[in-house]
Structure formats: C-alpha cells, structure tokens
Design goal:
By secondary structure, the chain is mainly beta. It contains two helices and 18 strands. Helix 1 packs antiparallel against helix 2.
C-alpha cells in the first residue's frame, strides 16, 4: 500500500473502530511511508468570538473539531460567545455565520493539518450559546473530551459523531417539544444525564462494552423511564456505540447496574 492509500485508511470513518495499538502501528506506517510529517507546536493562542443572532428565528450549529476539549453550554448574550485556546497554529478555528430567510447557520471548523504534532498540544473550545432561540446542534468530534451542558438551551435536535474519547451530555432540563438525539461513537465512554419527569427512550446498538442505567427500565437494547408515553414531550435517543461504556442517568434516581 502506498502513502496516499495509508492516509485514506487513516481518514476513513472506520478508523474510529481501531484499537489504540492498531492506531499506533498505523501512525508509524504513515511516518515510514512519508505521507505525513511533523506539525509545529507553538505558543498558546487565545481567540474570542462573539456572534449576534441577526434576523434568524431558528439556528443550526455545526461543529467540526479534530481533537481536543469541547465545552458547550448556555449563557451567551447574543447567539454565541466563544473562546478558543490552541497551540498549533494550523488548528485555528474558522467561524462562519449566515442567515438564510429566518434560519441561521453557524459553522465552526478546526483548521486542518496532515502532520502529527510533536510535543504537548492544547486545543480547547468553550462555546456559550443563546438560551432564547431554538437550535439544532451537529457535532463531528474526532478525539478528546466533550462536555455538553445543554439543559438551558431550546434544543431542537442533537447529532453527535465521535471517534475516540470521553463524552458527557446533560439534557435533563425542562422542555415542551420533542427532542431527537443521534450518537455515533467509536472508542471510549459516554454519559447522558436525562430528565425524570419527561419521557425518555434510549435505543442502544453497542459493540464491545457495557451499558449502565440509573432510573430506567431495560428491555433488550431499549431503555425507558417512568414518564415515557405519559408526558407531553419526549426525548428519543439512538446510540450506535463501538468499544467502551455507556452510562444513562436520570436526575434524582438511584444507581442500577444493568
């Protein structure tokens, strides 16, 4: 296999299912093939970005982050108030916002680099969003740690595609409308904090790993809470997991291992 072929394998979605040992071997092969090089690690850069809502009545947020720490929560005065800290210049995020009719589209993309950083890297995004506008969120997260505290947002949909790492998602806040959540995970762990008084159904299609539930009933790969089918609004979550653990917790419930 030539260098370009190796790189194609590395970039393919199936790479999410590789073990750490296999990933290490693949990186070594990429070095030996000459298809990737080193990326310079420099001084810490901190960028701040404020985005106003404009005339939009609903918003879709698309986040594309290769590796690092991702925090998303409410509290922004406008549409978004974010801070980006990184020490690889090529990772500088690009932020673009446009309003088409009554719908806003906010895109945040990590800068690309084909090389492997040599040294200690840092890439942390802290994103505050408006609590006053309905918003759908799509996240493509390669590797790292994600902390999504979405309790206060008017969340319409959530779509997460994560490769390797740890993910925490809190959607336990009050809501009047249904919510659909789709999660495609590779290797790592994910914890979901769920409401007790709003109906919740979680469908889990897992590979190698475990599922732990708190305050939910289990029927095969389906988990539901007491309020499911009774409340006005419902949350439906679909999780396609690879290797790792999934923890489901309803607020105020006792821990039960399944």
């Amino acid at each position: 296999m030539n260098g370009s072929g190796l790189y194609s394998v590395y970039r393919n979605e199936e790479a999410k299912m590789l073990t750490p040992k296999t990933m290490t071997i693949l990186v070594i092969l990429l070095f030996l093939s000459g298809s990737i090089s080193c990326v310079e690690v420099g001084d810490m850069e901190v960028d701040s970005k404020i985005v106003e809502l404009g005339g939009a009545e609903t918003v879709v947020l698309e986040v594309d982050m290769g590796a690092g720490e991702l925090d998303i929560h409410g509290g922004a005065r406008g549409l978004m108030d974010a801070t980006f800290a990184y020490n690889v210049y090529k990772w500088k995020p690009r932020v673009r916002y446009e309003v088409l009719g009554r719908k806003g589209l906010l895109k945040i993309r990590q800068g690309h680099s084909r090389g492997v950083p040599m040294g200690s890297t840092k890439n942390k995004w802290d994103i505050s969003l408006s609590e006053d506008v309905p918003i759908g969120i799509k996240i493509n997260f390669g590797a790292g740690e994600g902390d999504l505290d979405l309790r206060q947002l008017q969340l319409e949909s959530l779509d997460i595609d994560m490769g390797v790492g740890e993910l925490r998602v809190d959607i336990s806040g009050d809501r009047q409308e249904d919510l659909r959540v789709d999660v495609d995970g590779g290797v790592g762990s994910a914890t979901f904090y769920l409401p007790e008084h709003i109906g919740v159904r979680v469908d889990v299609d897992k590979g190698i790993g475990s599922v732990h539930a708190r305050g939910l009933h289990k029927d095969g790969g389906v988990y539901t809470n007491e309020a499911y089918g009774k409340s006005q609004a419902a949350i439906k979550i679909s999780i396609d997991a690879g290797i790792g653990s999934i923890t489901l917790k309803t607020k105020g419930s006792d821990y039960v291992k399944k």
